Amino acid sequence: MADDAVVERFRAFLRERSLPVTSQRLTIAGLLLNAPGHLSAEDVAALVRDTGHAAGLATVYRTIDLLVESGLVVERDFGEGFRRFEPARDVPRHEHLLCSVCGAVEEFRDDRIDEITRNIAAARGFSRERHRLVIHGVCRACQRKAPAIDRRLS
Amino acid sequence: MADDAVVERFRAFLRERSLPVTSQRLTIAGLLLNAPGHLSAEDVAALVRDTGHAAGLATVYRTIDLLVESGLVVERDFGEGFRRFEPARDVPRHEHLLCSVCGAVEEFRDDRIDEITRNIAAARGFSRERHRLVIHGVCRACQRKAPAIDRRLS
DNA sequence: ATAAATGCAAAGGGTTTGCAAAGGC
DNA sequence: GCCTTTGCAAACCCTTTGCATTTAT
Description:
By secondary structure, chain A is an alpha+beta fold. Chain A has helices spanning 5-16, 23-33, 41-50, 57-70, 111-123, 140-153; strands at 39-40, 73-77, 83-87, 95-99, 105-108, 127-138. Chain A has a three-stranded antiparallel beta sheet. Chain A has a three-stranded mixed beta sheet with strand order 5-4-6. Chain A is globular and about 45 Å long. In chain A, 27% of the residues are buried. Mean pLDDT of chain A is 90; it is low at 150-154. Chains A and B meet through strand 4, helix 5 and strand 6 of A and strand 4, helix 5 and strand 6 of B. Chain A binds a DNA duplex through residues 18-25, 40-42, 54-59, 61-62, 81-83.
């Protein structure tokens, strides 16, 4: 995993910038770039530890910054009080559903959103850079568990 | 302003809960509920000071919590690292445009967004609570100033 | 050898909380 | 008078930064 295609692209990015290719950077990149997505910085740090590697939290943050600058990772803010990061591979214009019970994130894509936001922005004389749409709710799995809890509480 | 209709509703909310009606609470409610919208907690605290009143920042936060619980104020998170609050009066389902230069917030409404998110959630077995759509870009006013800056930088 | 990255701990911004003093009911 | 709020400062969470040490080039 430390030498797969997407990590190679990060390595190339570092070389272009004449930045040292350190083992921490490769470890973090290898894990985050191949993760299923939507990890917090702490999640990444935990992954590093769990795979038997070592990297301080500050280094995780600093490496994530580089991955974002390289365009290989994108930053997400779901209003949870912390940021999440996902590999750019998945990015081509998708939106998110966030489960308010378990924090799970699902993705969806709908071209109408893009078109609508484009039109709205144009009508307001707004130069649109991007948009963020998040649907908050309860995922299927948590709904199955929820009724029992509701009964207990009421 | 301290005794307008919407502040009366807050007063009623406090009474229902048997909570003391303090001058700080009325001041904060009167200012926030009648504000043009999208204020941070610090904005509210500054408003309090600027109108010759006094209330500690902690009290501002605590009172905002009550206003949110009462449903008279809604909380917004535009990913700026802090939260904003707006009177619920404006809320009937609107979305936001956020200027990434000056931080100005504009609102718009589009019923298709609601319908689309409803359908997406249903298709995923997601019980939808709400959604948040923010268009990030540069507002008309900032675009007028930007070209000069661009030239200066390049 | 040089310049940069690392790790740790301290600082930072927004927000919350503990506790003595003040105030509504 | 009892119970809650208030104000202040300390604590808190996530993130960034300063600095001595280690590492890539």
